[in-house]
Fold Alpha-galactosidase.
Amino acid sequence: MSMAKGFRVKFLFVALLNLWVVHQAACSMNVSSHGHQAHSRFLLDNGVSRTPPMGWNSWNHFHCDLNETIIRSTADALVSTGLAKLGYKYVNLDDCWAEGERDKKGNLRGKLTTFPSGIKALADYVHSKGLKLGIYADAGNRTCSNQMPGSLGHEDQDARTFAEWGVDYIKYDNCYNDGSKNRGRYVRMSRALQKAGRPIHYSLCEWGQEKPAIWAGAYGHSWRTTGDINDTWASITSIADANDIWARYAGPGGWNDPDMLEVGNGGMTVEEYRSHFSIWALMKAPLLLGCDVSSASRETLSIIGNKEVIDINQDPLGVQGRKIRTKGGLEIWAGPLSRGRVVVVLWNRSRARAPISVGWREIGLSPSRPVTVRDVWKHKFVAMKRRYRLTSSVASHSCKMYVMTPFSG
């Protein structure tokens, strides 16, 4: 492809990305059937997740070694660290919270040895802190750990139970299923939650197998687009690329989910974790912490507590940023924000420090119009009336993240 042709393609992409916001509003009222339209409106009208959900999940750090003391101390830590005030409100139990079998009436029940007070009491405690409780279930006969029952065939019963307990978020996994199509099983739980009558964030976790970005917005608030994350550079880069494919399907009320955050779990460098958090924020991914918040280091808290980056993730326009250029591991990711602003990440995935340049036309800005450029990791303006382009030296596995604001003075 010639340079001129490549330039035109990039410019066209950015223009289409900006037009997508208007298109999305129209599409929300043009679903494939009357039934889907009515259900989609229910999900929007229940007020859940107009911006990507933020909170914590037990799995990445604790796996099956969780108990009510850990959950309570995590809720306490979210408040004491100030993370709760920044928007981290969900405290989510993952797998292994329930007894291995249902009771005589077929109900799920908290595991007596690890959750002796019961899930309802735990929800009450979390709510008393101004936070919300999330729980884990499965669209199969058993959960992925095989240590507790799945919800297949018990959707209505379990949805009622979760609502009665005061649950605010459900992660619905896909292990030990009956081999039927994922979509049908996930739709059944969606309808059960609607009947239960409580505003609950419904997270579909079928690992992107049946391209849920295309259909899940009519049934839930977020959907996994990828397999499971792990605490490595290779994992976050490959998952970011896989999630990027589905960017146009995300928006207020429904979000692509590239899995939970690994920041602070010890497998990557500070710069790699900063890149991880930056790209997840730009992609409007759910920001679900996966570390032990009660013992998080100052460096970890400085990353997950960066309000300027969080504000990008929570921007009300709700457009997922995308990769717009890559060459030799040097990448530009960008997306529109409210009030005519643009977020840009210069990401160096190569093994050596290198300069990365971005031109205004590539990101949908007029090249002759002056722009203020703010570095959201350094918390300072690096230019007040910059025109045409910006070049920055970026360290290996690091990134620079900027908010560009067209000058109005």
